[in-house]
Design a protein that fits this description.
The protein has 553 residues and is mainly beta. Helices cover 8% and strands 44% of the residues. Strands 1, 3, 4, 5, 6, 9, 10, 11 and 14 form a nine-stranded mixed sheet that branches. Strands 21, 24, 25, 28, 29 and 32 form a six-stranded mixed sheet that branches.
Length: 553
């Protein structure tokens, strides 16, 4: 309907223009080929999905210039036709626009080309997102008007070929089984424009055949159970490949061996162990050479093994790191593959005893920042009362991340903590409260022993009604910490040290918890000096001495 309205408008407007008759007849007649055949029509090629520019011929562009330069300018109707062939022509344009007096009239565009046309230089069309159905014979035609006379002539034509990348039709399965002396057919049908060429490869070596069907026969004494065939289809637009594994019937192999994994603690693990055979397959998993079945009770509800070989962990822990093996079995075959799982986690700082007691003006003390992290930490800092510490004569951060404090005094009392991070996260240690003590304020006891165990009392004078117990005392080693995993508390609050070492020598301090102190016998706090004499005989050991000497100062 819109097209008919445009024609009526053009017819009425044409009466008001006077174009030189010689110009019109010469230019229009020059656009009509004397003999038109399919072979004489030029071709234009463009790829599927890409844009293409439909250009009118040189004559149409020259004609448009002369029409626009005439006085007054002559109106013209631009038509684009899509024909299926020279014998199957369309009489309705898919694009039509009236050009007159520099007025921008709305064009007529058929539904198939909506939102895909952009006009270039007034009469050319840029078509976006080329479709396969766009392949056709295209004609650009200009309709001229001279007073009441309107004449439509054949315009320039070209054939648009839509090139399509290769696409496989009816490919083989990725795995084909063979029996000795029984022919196997492999298929490689591909479509596309231009028609794709076919190339076959066997175990990476190109074969001479280029047919779509390849027939192969395998002998019983083949040197392999698995052969890899690759079919490549290629044309000007692109290429595709299809790989087929031809496998001896009854053989067993992994479609993809296990590969080392690096995962973050807390994430889900889905680890497939996929083997292929035309017989039934069973799987077994091992972690560090121990059957995973024995780990299932440790994993509780977070781990499972599936019949298809999948190892599943709902949440991974750091101790899940290790070497894993997957074994696949058939009735007469067994294969295995292995890999390592590396579980990453943020820094975990091992708590340091707090409070930490040190003698005033002793040579130095060390407080630890022991870190367990994967990957290793990349930065570590120490703070005192929320102030960042740097290396000075007073403070030094050691290579093992510990903090060295030289000549401690009352000014060094406070709350210390370390902060470290790796690529996973940042961690902050517990507060370590340092208290400086004066030895002369304590009553002192001295022990020496060469035995492997010793019991140190918490009070000098005790009776069963007033003695403390293990729940209301805390023990500390001055300027150091209690030996890890080698101490226990007695029922009377005493400290029992076992597997004694020379490094256990030092000063020990028993502090009664404040909430219990008022119910106990009021006695001076004591400081115990212990000498561990590993080179002495047992007969010289165990002597208890109460002294008022200044050895503890």
């Amino acid at each position: 309907m819109l097209f008919l309205i445009i024609i009526l408008i053009i017819t009425n407007l044409a009466n008001s223009f006077d174009l030189n008759e010689n110009i019109v007849s010469a230019l229009v007649s020059s656009n009509i080929p004397s003999k038109l055949s399919q072979s004489s029509i030029p071709n234009k090629a463009s790829r599927l999905g890409e844009p293409v520019l439909l250009e009118c011929g040189t004559q149409e562009h020259e004609l448009l210039k002369q029409l626009e330069s005439s006085v007054p300018p002559m109106p013209v109707l631009v038509n684009w036709f899509k024909h299926y062939s020279l014998t199957r022509r369309s009489d309705k344009p898919f694009y039509a626009k009236y050009l007159a007096n520099n007025i921008d009239y709305a064009p007529h565009i058929s539904r198939d080309y909506e939102n895909r046309i952009q006009v270039v230089n007034k009469i050319n069309l840029n078509i976006s997102s080329l479709r396969a159905v766009d392949e056709a014979l295209y004609e650009c035609r200009l309709i001229l008007f001279d007073k009441a006379y309107a004449d439509s002539q054949a315009g320039s034509m070209f054939y648009l070929q839509v090139q399509v990348a290769p696409e496989f039709e009816y490919p083989n399965e990725e795995i084909v089984y063979f029996k000795p002396s029984v022919p196997v057919r492999l298929y490689c049908y591909a479509k596309g424009k231009p028609t794709p060429s076919i190339t076959w490869y066997k175990n990476g070596k190109q074969l001479e055949t280029n047919t779509s069907v390849l027939q192969e026969t395998f002998l019983d004494n083949e040197n392999s159970d698995i052969f890899e065939y690759k079919c490549k289809a290629e044309n000007k637009v692109g290429q595709i490949e299809h790989t087929i594994k031809v496998i001896r019937s009854g053989s067993l192999f992994f479609t993809e061996p296990l590969k080392n994994l690096t995962i973050t603690e807390g994430t889900i693990l889905n680890w497939p162990c996929l083997a292929q055979s035309n017989t039934e397959i069973t799987y077994k998993w091992f972690k560090d050479s121990v059957s995973v079945q024995s780990h299932l009770h440790k994993w509780a509800d977070r781990g499972a093994l599936f019949q298809d070989g999948m190892l599943y962990l709902l949440e991974t822990y750091r101790n899940d790191s290790g070497f894993y093996e997957c074994h696949a079995f058939t009735a007469n075959k067994r294969i295995e593959t292995s890999a390592y799982i590396n579980v990453l986690y943020g820094p975990e700082i091992i708590p340091f005893p707090s409070p930490f007691y040190a003698f005033e003006n002793s040579q130095s003390i060390v407080i630890d920042c022991l870190v367990n992290a994967n990957p290793a930490i990349i930065a570590l800092e120490w703070f005192k009362d929320q102030y960042l510490l740097s290396n000075t004569f007073k403070y030094e951060i050691l290579a093992n991340n510990s903090l060295l404090i030289r000549n401690p005094n009352k000014d060094d009392e406070g709350n210390y903590y370390c902060v470290c991070n790796n690529t996973i996260k940042k961690s902050v240690s517990h507060i370590i409260k340092i208290e400086i003590v004066e030895a002369k304020k304590f009553e002192k006891l001295s022990f020496s022993t060469s035995k492997n165990e010793i019991q140190l009392p918490c009070m000098t004078h005790q009776n069963k009604d007033t003695q403390p117990n293990s729940e209301n005392v805390n023990w500390f080693k001055i300027n150091s910490k209690l030996p890890q995993n080698r101490f226990t508390f007695g029922t009377n609050g005493s400290l029992i040290l076992s597997n004694l070492k020379s490094s256990d020598s030092g000063y020990y301090y028993c502090k009664i918890k404040e909430e219990y102190a008022r119910n106990l016998f009021t006695d001076n706090e004591i400081l115990i000096k212990l000498f561990v004499l590993k080179n002495k005989t047992s007969s010289d050991s165990g002597e208890l001495q109460i002294t008022n000497s200044d050895t503890c100062k």
